[in-house]
Design goal:
Elements (H helix, E strand, L loop, with lengths): L2 E6 L3 H12 L4 E7 L2 H11 L3 E5 L7 H11 L4 E6 L2 H13 L3 E5 L4 H7 L1 H13 L8 H4 L15 E6 L3 H10 L7 E6 L6 H11 L3 E4 L10 E4 L5 E7 L2 E7 L11 H11 L4 E5 L8 H9 L3 E5 L9 H8 L4 E3 L1 H16 L5
Parallel strand pairs: 1-2, 1-3, 3-4, 4-5, 6-7, 6-12, 7-9, 8-9, 12-13, 13-14
Antiparallel strand pairs: 10-11
Helix pairs in contact: 1-5, 3-4, 8-13, 10-11, 11-12
Amino acid sequence: MAVKVLIVDDSALIRSLLKDIIQHDPELQLVGAAPDAFVARDLIKQHSPDVITLDVEMPRMDGLTFLDKLMKGRPTPVLMISSLTEKGSEATLRALELGAIDFIAKPRLGIAEGMQAYAEEICAKLKAAARARLPRARPAAATGAPAMSSAPLLSTEKIFAIGASTGGTEAIKEVLLGLPPDCPGTVVTLHMPPGFTKSYADRLDRQTRLSVREARDGDRILPGHVLLAPGDYHMEVQRSGANYVVRLHREAAVNGHRPAVDVMFNSLARCAGRNLIAALLTGMGKDGARGLQAIRQAGGHTVAQDEATCVVYGMPREAVELGAAKEVLPLERIADSLLQQARQSGSGNRV
């Protein structure tokens, strides 16, 4: 049965472009196109869509207000339509916090050509969103900052590595909220376009007790610091004397992505081995699975998020099927697992 899609956007051009893209995919069915939230409300009642595309800036009621009301009253998978601006990226991140599954970035120039160029990706995201689990509301205690650990974790040797895609913004945040400021240095790759990664890193820096920022070429990996791969750049890790440093480059996409989790994981497997503790979180596709396998084969400890807590159980499923994950855990237990492994390996118990 085709996935029923409702478009909500005040731009007649965007509505027309999305209509054309959806109608050319036999697995999608367009059930309506609304110029504002009030028309959308009536169409939702009439058609019960499987997934909704939603603009942020709309007349009468903005997209974030509508999304908040929708998730409280009639939870439905939502794909945000976002502008590549600082304001647009902040609004998009807020939408993901409110429960949106994913987003599509509007091209800066040549909107018609740009949207058509990403037609395949747009359709794939619509189908994935329709099948996704809506993010679960977390109890306040689950996202609060943890108490300081009595066991020392400060180490320039150990590295935490995290990879994610669809649903990953909130999943990564939950893991980082569970880490104390003396945790090992952490590197993160998330499938996110340029213009969004800096806003996301800044947001995490404010919300967690760690120092989080978008990585720059040559940055050292330091305890209590998190480096996020910039949009459109692969991030690798290299050993430099007693230090680990990140290297950024724009070589070809891997698994259809740049940055790719496999690029980061494979580089870590080569240079860090037993010093690694890696987690692969929610996401569409297979990126990161083989890299996680390489880390496990190199002696690092590996964790995959379980199906029940994933928004999209794609990347972790691939890792589990490969035998790449030593542990398969619900999201709320992953931070504790990383810390436990850091303490064990730090005291000489190799995993």
